[in-house]
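Long-time lurker, first post.

We've been arguing in lab meeting about whether S-adenosylmethionine would sit comfortably in this protein at all. Half the group thinks yes, half thinks no, and nobody has a model to point at. So I'm putting the question to the forum: if I give you the sequence and the SMILES, can you give me back a predicted structure of the complex? Inputs are below. Any interpretation is welcome too.
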Amino acid sequence: MISAVSVAYSRRAQEYIDLFGTMSAVHPSDRQLVATWAGGIDGQVIDAGCGPGQWTNFLAGLGLAARGVDQVPEFIERARHEYPHLRFDVGTLESLDCGTGTLGGVLSWYSLIHHEPDTIRVPLAEFHRALAPGGTLLVGFFEGPVVEQFDHAVIPAYRWPVEALNTQLQAVGFEVVESHVRKTAGQRPQAALVARRVDRR
Ligand SMILES: C[S@@+](CC[C@H](N)C(=O)[O-])C[C@H]1O[C@@H](n2cnc3c(N)ncnc32)[C@H](O)[C@@H]1O
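Top reply:
Settle the argument with this. Predicted structure of the protein with S-adenosylmethionine, as tokens:
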């Protein structure tokens, strides 16, 4: 079934590509944060909810075996066109096309912002399944004092307190090892968590 989020992004795909589809639209501190995380990755990486693929290409440029997945065909078509040397698949965050314990890293850069709070554990558990022991997930999201919905240009999204997302991550077997919050005047507060897959014995 095609989700409402997918339909909404399909409708505005070109607009999104024009505004956010290249690394020049990225805040320098986010670029640095992702590059630092990438430097500690051993193994393949999936850019989960890759949009037009700019982060996938960035990760590949750092020497990682990176591929992208997104539910929006227009984004995947664009990513394949722009970065023909890389692999991009239409797919969902809830069911990644990879074996259990096979990834060194998962990047989820603002791709969980539209998930209802009571469904967010489904993709988080899927990322956990896909990661090898010690593998890490980097999640970028909008930060706020309580979990609440807000009007996003494409379709409503959620802001999360760091602690609340931390709780969701722990519930599926992650340990949060880094937490970053950025508050820039005139912008929504933004945050990123690095979470490591914990091996339960
Ligand atoms: C705000 S955009 C971010 C795109 C990209 N990561 C970037 O930084 O430009 C959110 C993306 O997540 C994707 N997405 C959201 N939920 C998804 C799901 N359940 N399965 C696959 N993709 C999803 C959307 O299609 C959209 O491309």
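For your lab meeting: The first strand starts at residue 44 and ends at 48. Residues 45 and 105 are 5 Å apart (CA to CA). Whichever side wins, do check it experimentally.
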